[in-house]
Amino acid sequence: AQKITQTQPGMFVQEKEAVTLDCTYDTSDQSYGLFWYKQPSSGEMIFLIYQGSYDEQNATEGRYSLNFQKARKSANLVISASQLGDSAMYFCAMTHTGANSKLTFGKGITLSVRP
Amino acid sequence: DAGVIQSPRHEVTEMGQEVTLRCKPISGHDYLFWYRQTMMRGLELLIYFNNNVPIDDSGMPEDRFSAKMPNASFSTLKIQPSEPRDSAVYFCASSLDRGAVETQYFGPGTRLLVL
User: Fold this and answer.
1) Does the distance separating the beta carbons of A31 and B45 come in below 8 Å?
2) Can you spell out the DSSP letters for A48-94?
């Protein structure tokens, strides 16, 4: 069974600073993918970044990067140069290939960016 | 390209009424997922389809819920009869099927309130 753990109850960061949002996962599969989604107060789910289990490099997308530590089963999201618009709920999720391709989500982390 | 389209965006109904939620996936996507988000349970998968065929409906709460995908561009999630505990945000998501892990793209969601 897959499990995603996000234990940080809420995070605060000063505008323009970097912040790390933690995510650990549990799976017995070798092939899987890890995702981060952003959910602002308006409610939509916005895809941010993806990391494949076989990717040797950490994924980056603009100001977002994923600190993937496979042995520790962690996939932390790093947001650099925080902006006020980054204030939102952030979800870590994982899925597998093919017939078991449903996403399993963590409970999410609330990030608030202070001006 | 248009993203995933859901309708209605908001629905308020009375207990016992039938509710139908609609989804149009991204053109060319082979997978379609229905998720439900509540404060208590977070984001959970209800059912997903591959090439219009239901693959896993183990997340459907009970017989009051049903989902169909009559063609590649349309799916419905029906609740009959609705109950107050069905109040939630219902998301539809879609992804490609290329035999590997794929990103799921979410629609804006339908916010359902059952009185």
Assistant:
1) no
2) EEEEETT-SSPPEETTEEEEEETTTTEEEEEE-S--GGG-EEEEEEE
Top pLDDT among A1 and B42 is at B42
Please report the sign of the dihedral spanned by the C-alpha atoms of residue A41, residue B49, residue B32, residue B19.
Answer: negative
Token digits of residue B1: 């390209």
> B96-100: long-range contacts (C-beta < 8 A, 24 or more apart)?
B96/B28, B96/B29, B96/B30, B96/B31, B97/B29, B97/B30, B97/B31, B97/B50, B97/B51, B99/A97, B99/A98, B100/A97
Tens of pLDDT, residues B60-111: 988 999 999 999 999 999 999 999 999 999 999 999 887 778 889 999 999 9
Q: Band the pLDDT of B44: cuts 50, 70, 90.
A: very high
- Whole-number pLDDT of residue A23: 98
Shortest alpha-carbon distance between residue B50 and chain A (Å): 9
Task: Compute the distance between CA of residue A12 and CA of residue A37 in angstroms, rounded to an integer.
Answer: 18
For chain A, residues with pLDDT lower than 70 are 97-100
Q: Is B49 within 8 Å of chain A by CB? A: no
- A-chain residues within 8 Å CB-CB of B109? 43-45
